[in-house]
């Protein structure tokens, strides 16, 4: 499968093009990258092999013009799964049209074959990491980061390989734990999903932060993309609250958030004189929209932040650097106290929906609500109501359907949660369409 996928990818590129590849530390990713390398070379595409490197280094290599596209291979949440992230020439996630083009070649098995001197060249670049660190330093206000103290747990991911170089260049005193594990890192998904291990990491970081006088602590996911924060008092800051803290302190001119997040974020941005752009849900859509609009910041409220001026994708080191700039002078504990334990009042319902029923459900929703002038059909069906909003959205990767809802008041007069009631009301509409024939 991996060879066929890489052959399809290479066929869509011009002969002689250069592609940058990187991987995480898992053995499955090592094997898969070697297979992808062979397949790409066989289509006449040259390969820049960065070996073990987090996705940010690969994206930077592409953005710097070293290659026309890139791919990062890493283990999935399930030990039997493997994720391959494809990047376009601008280091943004590959567009849906690009994905369809690769899928077309994959299904038809119409691969280009190179022979003799037309076979691609394998390149091992020498300064890819150094150039990434240099760009990060240029994008950071070193006066605000120099001399700061951090406590960071890298969850054994490959991002830990460059941690010492990054923190040294930024003048940061970092207490690094779980910096890098050679192979088969447990829990290679988002750090917030790793259960007991995540809790232990947060507790460990939280105990050390006040002891060493750190500005804050962080647990970085093994992918090197998401960051979960602990404030200067050692208390965990939920990711939705942390996003509010970042927007509050950053005061962005323009921010991009997915349409399933609370409207309170929009109010927060507009109160500071900025504008908020809505994007379709999902990291790829968010990153592309942030890059297109030249936003100052974008986020998913799950620990992944995008700062397009550096990279059009989440990167843990850029997130940590920005957080230092924002919370060095005003402590994170003081900022987060303004927002409580949760931000907004969005409620979500998850419904089982067979693949075969998704089209029928979407057609039914479009027929039922398509005539509403306030309905938005670009990503699922979103209804703007007098009391709030509702979003009914199919999961693109699983046989599931989601219903998100938020009311302006948050709680009804009888003390019940009106957002919960609104979500339940429209979940029943979706369930009726799922069960209909």
UniProtKB/TrEMBL annotation:
InterPro entries: A-D-PHexomutase_a/b/a-I, A-D-PHexomutase_a/b/a-I/II/III, A-D-PHexomutase_C_sf. Pfam families: PGM_PMM_I (PF02878). One of its GO terms (molecular function) is metal ion binding. GO terms for biological process: carbohydrate metabolic process. It comes from the Bacteria. The keyword RNA-binding does not apply. Residues 3-110 form the Alpha-D-phosphohexomutase alpha/beta/alpha domain. Its EC number is 2.7.7.23, 5.4.2.10. Keywords: Isomerase, Magnesium, Metal-binding, Nucleotidyltransferase, Phosphoprotein, Transferase. Its cofactor is Mg(2+). Belongs to the phosphohexose mutase family. PANTHER family: PHOSPHOMANNOMUTASE (PTHR43771:SF1). This is N-acetylglucosamine-1-phosphate uridyltransferase / Phosphoglucosamine mutase. It comes from uncultured Rubrobacteraceae bacterium.
